[in-house]
Amino acid sequence: SIAMSRTDRLECHYELVPLDGLIVSHDVGFAFNPTLEFPEQFQPRSRNRMADQEQVYRMAGSLVPDWLGASSDITSGAPIVGPDYIVESGNGRVMALQAALAGNKSSYPEYIGWLKDNAATFGLNAEDVARLTEGGNGYVLVRVRDTEMTKEQRINFVQRANASAVSRYSAAETARQDAAKITDDLL
Hints:
This protein is an alpha+beta fold and 187 residues long. The longest helix has 12 residues. 34% of the residues lie in helices and 12% in strands.
């Protein structure tokens, strides 16, 4: 479980899933991914800023496996996905893994080696480890959210999970989120 506040906890379990089995907000070319029915409100970042793209490519070139594993924080560690495998926290991390795999970066095999070495830590079994050795297939360790949420709770969670010190919202992204909170009564 992950602490979201002093009273709220997020229950998750680890799974090893194919990279192409996740519904990610943007493709490796940074185009928004509407073909996979990714809800736009689940990704407050536009990903078209050069800083966001550089961050993804920097991560792809030098993945730090420990940063993609266990974490008590919703903004780091293995990406968090809903039961429908829509990425809720960690779209950038998933994009970096996809870019590392597509670009034949040495960082991706290092990540797979780390997963093999630490499989038991995440409850992965021999079948899971065997899948990691299949040539050409990309896999990622994710935390699947078990805590049920309404659509509104899920949107709120995604916004909280994306409020990271690593990559700040642009002024336009912040304004878009703030505008959504303004009600007629408030005006």
